[in-house]
Amino acid sequence: MLSPMREPTSDAEEFTVDELASRANMTVRNVRAYASRGLIDPPRLEGRTGYYNLSHLQRLQLIRQLLDRGFTLAAVEDAIVKSPTTAPGHALELMTLLGHTGDDDPSVLMSPDDLAALANVQHADPLIDALAELGLVERVDETTLRILDPQVVRPGAAAVALGLAPETVINAVPILREHLRAIADHLVKQVSDEIVQPFVDQGLPEHDWPRVFGAVEELLPIASQVILALFRSELQESIEIEVGDKLQQMGESGPEGTASAS
């Protein structure tokens, strides 16, 4: 679920604050700030020097990954500081599970010419600029693009190739995002309120973690399947209504309308 962590050669290995910051890929200032907020345990002191171990490193790496996923520092702090002392690791894992979206890095590299071929357009630059503004594509160099979300970009390019205007496809993205975000927020809140919160209210009992993790992990994919099924149903109904309207227009126009149109 989380990306692999670079681990020390031994569980017993210890580091100074500078070494810990380097291994955690963050600044010494941030390490000290997290320590002052209680996000990591105090180091072992030897004289005036503090020594940190593998558990400190793993905690910092997990905090950094959660921040990278969009969690606020306040949310991470709540999970660690305000949870029972036996549960911080579990609380962070649950946050990661709720924020997990599949592959950590689904991006692929593609040339502008390949994207133009997918969309069946001669010049891909306007399309690339629009996709970049939506956060779906970024330019690596003049000959290489990084497609940040291939599952959106490839079908979108295919829709353009089938005849939709690039602007139509591009303009649909923020509309879809807005509605899907509202649905996602609602579903996650329901899972949180009805499954996670009662568990938190009970003091996060250790024996109940497998049940809660299992329920959350299974419910989120189920929700995705339901959304897809409902969308297909609504799409089919919308198509039938539109086709019916067109047939009615054709019937009302009659032979004279057909002749004049020709």
From TrEMBL:
Pfam families cross-referenced by the UniProt entry: MerR_1 (PF13411)
Sorted UniProt keywords: DNA-binding
Top-rank taxon, per record: Bacteria
Record flagged with keyword DNA-binding: yes
Residue intervals of the HTH merR-type domain: 14-82
One Gene Ontology molecular-function label: DNA binding
PROSITE patterns the record matches: HTH_MERR_2
DNA-binding recorded as keyword: yes
InterPro entries hit by this protein: DNA-bd_dom_put_sf, MerR-type_HTH_dom, MerR_fam
PANTHER family linked to this entry: HTH MERR-TYPE DOMAIN-CONTAINING PROTEIN, REDOX-CYCLING DRUG-SENSING TRANSCRIPTIONAL ACTIVATOR SOXR
Protein name: MerR family transcriptional regulator
Species per Swiss-Prot/TrEMBL record: Aeromicrobium camelliae
